[in-house]
Please model this.
Amino acid sequence: MGTRERIIGAADEVIRELGAARATTKEIAKAAGCSEALLYKHFGRKEELFLAVLLEQMPALAPAVARLRATLGEGDPAASLQEFAVAAIRYFGRSLPLIAGLLAEASLRAGFREMLAGTGGGPHIPIAVLGRHLAEEQRLGRFPAGTKPDAAAALLLGACFHRAVVVSLVGGLTDLGTDEDAAADLVAAILGGAGPRDPAPRSRPKGVPDTP
Model:
């Protein structure tokens, strides 16, 4: 493992242990077994390092997007969307510590936004890509004609993010089912109930009241 990869791995570990706001370059360099000077040789500022953690160390959505795009017009669209949704749930789950730190710290958030502007990335990109994919499937008659693709994409990825947050907060305290089951239910809702899964009705998760 090269120095750059070692620093990224150390940053990931420190962020999870201390949170993004308290993950100083000094702590990260110590965990990586290098000097701060060497760290800054590879990363000009902390935001750049955090972006590398988000894009390189964590399971990126890019491979899942590529797999989804490869299914355009072929196979079962519901099954393809379910696979993508599972990948999104797990990506968001692993990204939460860094995302929470960025949202809580104004200076980190500003620096990160500047970095994203320079790379052309951001959380809106997967939504836009998924929306275009659904629009193309719609033109092929494989996605409900009465559904807005962009809205469906936002709803699906938003629900995947919510699932990751809920699992992070109460996972283990109540039965939330598997990510695969959650993805299947979300996709079925987006498709108006269509989908390959025909599950038996599930009982209300333990610990969830009948009313809000």
User: Anything to note?
Assistant: The chain has two domains: 1-57, 59-212. Residues 194-204 have pLDDT under 50 and may be disordered.
